[in-house]
Every structure is written in C-alpha cells, then in structure tokens.
Amino acid sequence: MSIENYHTDDPLVALSAISETINTIYDLDELLPKVLDIALKTVNAQRGFILISDPGNPAELSVRVAHNLESSALANIDRFSRSVVNAALQSGSTVISYDVPEDARFSSAQSVAEQKIIAAACLPLRIKAQQIGAIYIDSTETRGKFRPEMEPFLNALANQAAIAIENAQMYDRLRSENRRLRLVLADKKELAGIIGQSRPMQQVLDVVKSVMDTPATVLILGESGTGKELIARALHDNGKYKDKPFIALFCGALPESLLESELFGHKQGAFTGATHDKKGLFEEADGGTFFLDEIGDISPKLQTQLLRVLQEREVRRIGENKVRKIDVRIVAASNKDLPAEVKAGRFREDLFYRLNVIMIQMPALRYRSNDIILLAQHFLDKTAARAGRQIQGFTQEAVEGMLQHDWPGNVRELENAVERAVLLAKAEFITPQDLRLEPPTPAKEIMTLQDHERRIAERALAEHNGNVTEAAKALGVSRRWLHYRLKEWRE
Ligand SMILES: Nc1ncnc2c1ncn2[C@@H]1O[C@H](COP(=O)(O)OP(=O)(O)OP(=O)(O)O)[C@@H](O)[C@H]1O
Ligand SMILES: [Mg+2]
Q1: Which of 57-66, 170-179, 456-465, 474-483 has the lowest average pLDDT?
Q2: Does the model's pTM come out above 0.90?
C-alpha cells in the first residue's frame, strides 16, 4: 500500500502502511518530510515542523523540516509553538491542545491570537528513554480541530517515526564512516607496479598522488634508469585523465624538422613530402597527457616553439595560419641537470620555469638501498613467471653484492641484471656470479677524502629531498658549511 492512500477508516491498516513506508527510507532528508506530511494529513493540520536533536548534544534541537513555517532552531520558533514543544519535551509525552484559545496552558501567548491557532500538538520522538526530537503540528482552520481518538494514532506514528529516524541516522553515520575509510585506503594505496618503500621514493609517490588529478605541468629529473618514464605514466594512469590519451615523444634522437612536424602537425604541401594534412601530437593528446621525454635535448628553435605552446595553450600546424586551442597536461623528463643547462645557456630559462611547475627529482638507486632488494625480488618474480623458471630467490652473497653495488644504471641496470640472472641461473637461488655484478672498481679504493665527503653529503641531500638545512643537521655540520661545499663542488 502506498503512502498516498493511508487514509482509511481502519487506523491499524493506515498505521501498518505508514510504518512499511517510512521504515524503507534510509535518507533522513527524504524521510522527515514524509513523516511530517503524514502527521499533518492525519489531523488535517496546516502547519508543522520536525525538530531533531544534535547527536553530539541531545539538548540542542533544530528544525530539520517545516511546513508553512520557517525557523531553524528551537529558540527561533514563535513563543507559542515553543511552549507546546517544551511542555512535551519536559513531560516526555504527547501534548495536545484541542482548543487553544480556551487552554489555560498556552492561551496567553501572543501568537495564538495573531495567527488564530485553534489546535496544536507536539509528539516527542523517543528511543528508549532518550529524546531524539519532536514533531510539532498546529491548525488554524475549524476543519482542523483535533479529535481525542486521534491521540493513540499520533503516538503510534511518533514511535514508528522515531525508529525510522534512528535507523536513517545510523545509516548516515555508516555511510560517512565508509567514505572516510575509503579515503584513507585511497591515500594508502600504492601506485600499481611502482616499488618504493624508501623515504626518497615515498616522497616522490606523495607528490605523484597529490598532483595526478590536477592539470599542473610536471618536470621529472633524474639519472638514467631511475624510473622517470614509469612516473610519467603513473601520473596519467592513476589520475583523472586516465581515460584520455597518453602520448609520449622521445625528443632525444629526432632531427629538428621531424620533431617539429611530429609535435605540431602540418598542412598538405607545407614541405616536400607533406602529402596530406596531419595532426600534430599535441592535438592527438588533447584532453590527456603529453609526455616529452629527454626535453633537455631539444633545439633552441623548438624550445621557443614549446614555450609558446605552454604560454598560449595553442598550436599551429606547419604551413597553416589557423591556431588551435589545446587542453593537454604536459609532463617532461630529462636526465640532464636542467638548471645547469640553463646556467650554461643551452636551455631557455623561461621554458625551464614553465616546465618546472611541479618538479619531481628521481633519487638514484644508490640512495635508496631499502628498495634494492624489493625491486630485485619484483623483477625476479616477473621474469621467472614469464620464462617459466622455478627460481626461489637470491643467495645471501647475492643480496650483499646488490646492496654494495653502485648501480650507475639505476633501476634499469638492476632489472637487466636480474632478468639475465633468472635466465642463466643453474640453481634455485641466484648467486653473485649469475648477477655478474662488476666488482668495485679500483678507482673507488683511491677515492680522496674530498670524494668521500662529497658522496656522503650528496646522499644526505637526496635523503632529505634536497633540503640543505635538514641534510646539514643529519650530517652534523653547519648549514653554511654545506652550502659552501655544494657551491665549490658544483663549480
Ligand atoms: N620504482 C620502480 N618500480 C618498479 N620498476 C621500476 C621502478 N623504477 C624503474 N623501474 C623500471 O626500470 C626501468 C627503467 O625505468 P624508466 O624507463 O622509467 O627510467 P628513465 O628514468 O625513464 O630512464 P632513462 O633516463 O634512461 O630514459 C623500467 O623498466 C621501469 O619499469
Ligand atoms: Mg626514459
């Protein structure tokens, strides 16, 4: 039975229809208007509201829904209604005034005369001994005179409503708790396929997570093989642009003219060989991510063109005058020391600043020894599964060898070494011989004190994400000393 036809001569039938309806609504904003509507219709009342107490402070009641009345808190309700509500809340039971002007309890209130209220009722909403709110209704029309036989019905309605409201509030709490947990999980979630428990990698991943849903330009710097491309893809694949294109262009080896036509496209006949109109990669990447790999290698002319794209967010195909707006998230990477390239005049400073909105410095593998074995195990599992080889792990000597190795080729070198070892290994455990790690070079043994100092300082800096103050503290030297040395080493 629907709520619309609860008007029946049998109050029990009506009540069961009502409880059936309101017990299936778990949204408080939907439930309360329905309850109020039923209460008003039951007694032909014209005005009403429902007060709900604040779960954290039950004495604090506020109006959650109102009909023909406007108020927000109990204190703002007109004096008459308030006195009826107070009487009900204090006694903890239904208060009905069948003839308000004659009712000594309330007749003196100014609003009674002003608004010609003839009947009013307040039904406290209680769960066990606890007050969770109240329903107030009143009537200003003669046909709206309340009849005593309505009282049991109203009481039953109030009981049903209280239960439904409590359920809805519980659902609400569960829903928001769930939302909170999901957020915590999302925050904890590691990015797929990226291994990195070390502090410097955790810092990188924090930055990735915080910018992946934004359109901000990202510059990824770091030695060769440190995972720059992996991070660029992670920014795209985990962010909100993941369903849009991800286009990567290796700027390193391409001649300028080819690179230019790849980036910007061309019009038919723009140059020999341009047999048809062609979209550039910036246009192809529209709405998604454009990854410019090895940006440090592009020519001065292209640097200027790129700067214009970043400033104007528009491109022009070669041989065409028309400009086209593009909406592309730009990620650039380089294994060159770009600030040094800028200083040396080989890379435009203004372009550097345009690219350097968010900078991610990939730590070299030798500065994240915590990750070396995790990465090795990861590559072992991957290769062994692919090659169908039963390799269990590494010998203790192999682990030590990997930890001591310098890894000039970083993660890529480690990946190659493990892949090769998995394929070559003669036993279940990989040995240092399988890994073919180069023994420490003699040059290392004749490292000067100065070299040692520099390596230790650089390691501390990497571990503190380039923060000189923190690195100096960790090294037990003064900030000034470290600054001075860094300057000296860089010259
Ligand atoms: N943290 C990591 N977890 C798992 N795999 C990684 C990680 N970092 C790098 N790799 C793997 O190492 C290899 C090299 O990474 P990538 O190509 O991203 O490095 P790069 O910095 O772009 O190198 P280059 O400067 O030589 O282009 C890839 O196969 C990549 O999947
Ligand atoms: Mg790369």
Answers
A1: 170-179
A2: no
- Residue 381: CB within 6 Å of ligand 1? no
Q: What is the pLDDT of residues 49-103, one digit of tens each?
A: 999 998 778 788 889 999 887 766 666 777 888 889 999 999 999 999 988 888 8
Instruction: Output the furthest CA–CA distance in the chain (Å, rounded).
Output: 109
Q: Say if residue 161 is in the same domain as residue 220.
A: no
Ligand 1 centroid–CA 229 distance in Å is: 6
Residue 233 Cβ contacting ligand 1 at under 6 Å: no
Of the CA atoms within 13 Å of residue 354, those in its CB half-sphere come to 19
- Give distance in angstroms: CA of 174 to centre of ligand 1: 42
CA–centroid distance, 260 to ligand 1, in Å, is 27
* Token reading at 365: 């593998």
Arithmetic mean of pLDDT, 290-304: 94
Domain count for the chain: 4
Contact 411 CB / ligand 1 (< 6 Å): yes
Instruction: Answer for the pair 219, 329: CB distance below 8 angstroms, yes or no.
Output: no
Q: Cβ(224) to ligand 1 under 6 A?
A: yes
Single-letter amino acid, residue 45: A
Terminal C-alpha separation, the chain: 86
Looking up residue 155, the CATH number of its domain turns out to be: 3.30.450.40
Specify whether 109 is located in the same domain as 154. Answer: yes
Residue 476: give its domain's CATH number: 1.10.10
Distance 408 CA to ligand 1 centre (A): 13
Whether 171 is covered by a domain: the verdict is: yes
Residue that finishes a domain, picked among 175, 207, 242 = 175
